[in-house]
Design goal:
single chain, alpha+beta, six-stranded mixed sheet, 5 helices
Length: about 180
Amino acid sequence: MTRIVSVALYSRGGPVAAGGSQKTLGSKTYHWGILVSPERSTGRDCAAYHATDKSYLDTTTYRMVNPEMKWYFEAKENINPELSTKLVGHLVIGKVPDKATAADIKAVFNSVPLPVKNQNPQQDCKTWIVNAIQALQKLKWASTFDVKKFMDYAVLYADDRMKGTTSKEPKMKVYVPKK
């Protein structure tokens, strides 16, 4: 079974998602992650990987989880990305070799350096994505392309997807670098 690797962009919701923030915030308008899925997904057969510094209230213990907002790696397996209300779209950048197991794939993304707090320039989930793409390119799981140009293209793609029904872009698109 062929599995594809995509860079996924998610709406942050709230005031950030309201029109106009793309011009002010640029790439920070979106949360960035990786999706690994079969070429033809049939539901909960995908995996999502990302770096996050989110904190939240544990509804069982009523204690804050990650109150210091430290960066950590998160893997979610057996998901259906179509059920996400925040997925703006995803750009296919490569394929996973057939011999790679779910543990192999998770290990690749778990080894990607996490963003570091209090840096200039500021590091975030986009920093992690750049490093993840470079790791995939070294493994030949992603095609070779200029990562900065890709990131700029991805923002324009997501900005168009945020237009909703007037968007001209599909939810999933294969990235083809311009020469």
